Amino acid sequence: FTGRLSPPAGTDDRLFVGSSTNAFWALRASDGATLWQWRMGGDVAGAVVDGDRVYVLTLDNLIRSLDAGSGNQRWKASLATRPGAPPLALKGLAVVSGVAPRLEGFARKTGASAGELNAAVEVLLAGLR
């Protein structure tokens, strides 16, 4: 491994980790053997596993849904802002927080936008109620 590693994500039998060299690996948890590897378009900001999918955020403002077993890409989507933290998996959505006070959601199976929340506006409106 080279570069700065992203926070790891994992399951009982696999570990997923990316790096600042645009690489993303799936490793067998029992012995660390590489199961598959992806070359991303930007530094890997982090990943999260949700069942048979792993969502990977990269600093070229993309989120990708990969098959956790094979590494095959299921979909990718552009982000409206630079990722600020690894993604979250929540009720069938991949949720991304950006460096701007904003959250974006993507449908688990298709990558379709599930909406966004501008946190600064929502907090301001909540304070006015």
Quaternary class = single chain
Shape: globular
Q: Any idea what the radius of gyration is?
A: 15 Å
Q: H/E order of the elements?
A: EEEEEEEEEEEEH
Low-confidence stretches: none
The tally of beta strands, per DSSP, is: 12
Report the structural category.
mainly beta
β-strand amount? over 45%
- Rounded to the nearest angstrom, the distance between the terminal CA atoms is 51 Å
Helix tally equals 1
What is the makeup of the main sheet?
4 strands, antiparallel
Strand order in the largest sheet = 1-2-3-4
Give an overview of the whole structure.
- The protein has 129 residues and is mainly beta.
- It has one helix and twelve strands.
- It has a four-stranded antiparallel β-sheet, with no helix packed on it. It has a four-stranded antiparallel β-sheet with strand order 5-6-7-8, with no helix packed on it.
- It is globular, with a radius of gyration of 15 Å.
- The chain starts with 8 loop residues before the first strand and ends with a helix.
